[in-house]
Amino acid sequence: MPELVGSSLIFIVSLFILIKAADYFTLAAQEIGIFFGIKPFIIGVTVVAIGTSLPELVSSVIATLKDSSEIVIGNVIGSNIANICLILGVASIMSARAMVVEYDLLSVDLPLFAGAAFFLAFTIKDLQFTSGEAFLCLLGLLVYILYTVNSSQADIEANKAEKEQQEKLSKKSINWQFIILVVSAVLIFISANFTIDSIIEISESLGIGKEIIAVSAVAVGTSLPELIVTIKAARLGQPEMAVGNILGSNIFNSFAVMGIPGLARGLVIPESILTDGIPVMLSVTILFFFTTQNNKVTKWEGWLFIIIYLWFIGKTLELF
């Protein structure tokens, strides 16, 4: 019992540091992105999405190195479900009005978003995730990043003069943001290490699968940066950044958080993830796809996502 209490305290503290460090990393990355004249949606799907997904990525890499790779898929599936249901749900409820996105989602972003989820499901249906599949995941991520960066080039060129002025006026500030970026990245690595160690110890003490802890507690914890960023964006009247963050985070999770650890060695895929987690992830992905067809998300749709998430967590933890 004392070991369980100690492991639980380490888990809470290390996860808190992991989240806060990721928050500082994200804010610094966001400032740097804005400094270079990148529009809000592009910042959301690239800089902010990658920054807020760092807890999932680093913890997944460390879990793989510690021979606990079943945590990786649990983390990815749980985080993707939390991003859609919990984060989008809370953000839309707290938004002053319906979250309207003027950016054209239907042409490329939504199909890639749904495609990434289905590709992930296809790769693990045989309960294996090979290095070849990991490589294809990273190739998919590269295609998406190249698309988003390319789509922002016109804006960068249009604001070139303004950007040059910002460089002269804010050089010291940007240098400071780069320092924050490096320090927070180091803290993310250290805290993720302790988080994974505590998960392994808690799992052994309680006799439950590591993927169960990953798909619930770890997924919610590592999704908190996305939640904070998305709520702030929604309340400040920036729904494009909020929705873009969710889109980018899920694509990054499916491709990078699975792909990078998978390159090192094959990942263990528990059968429970295939039978319980994957169907829910695909279902809410499809629901998100159709919900955003009219480029907006209402409060009522947000409440539906919240109800689905409460059911998912309840079933996962066998609460009902």
What does this structure look like?
This protein is mainly α and 320 residues long. The protein has a single domain (2-316), classed as A middle domain of Talin 1 (Up-down Bundle), CATH 1.20.1420.30. The protein contains 14 helices and four strands. The chain has a two-stranded antiparallel ribbon. The two termini are 26 Å apart. The relative contact order is 0.23. The mean pLDDT is 81.
Question: Could you name the key traits of this structure?
Answer:
320 residues; mainly alpha; A middle domain of Talin 1; two-stranded antiparallel sheet; two-stranded antiparallel ribbon; 14 helices; 82% helix; 2% strand; globular
In short:
The chain has 320 residues and is mainly alpha-helical. The protein is built from 14 helices and four strands. The protein has helices spanning 2-35, 40-52, 54-65, 70-94, 109-124, 131-151, 153-158, 160-169, 171-206, 210-222, 224-235, 239-264, 271-291, 299-316, and strands spanning 99-100, 128-129, 267-268, 296-297.
Strands across the major sheet, in which order? Answer: 1-4
Give average pLDDT, whole number.
Answer: 81
Q: What is the straight-line distance between the termini? A: 26 Å
What percent of the residues sit in helical stretches (DSSP H or I)?
A: over 70%
Helical stretch tally: 14
Shape: globular
Q: What is the CATH architecture assignment?
A: Up-down Bundle
CATH fold call: A middle domain of Talin 1
Secondary structure: number of strands: 4
Oligomer: single chain
H-E order: HHHHEHEHHHHHHHEHEH
Strand content: under 5%
Name of the CATH class: Mainly Alpha
Q: CATH homologous superfamily, by name? A: NCX, central ion-binding region
User: What structural class is derived from the secondary structure elements?
Assistant: mainly alpha
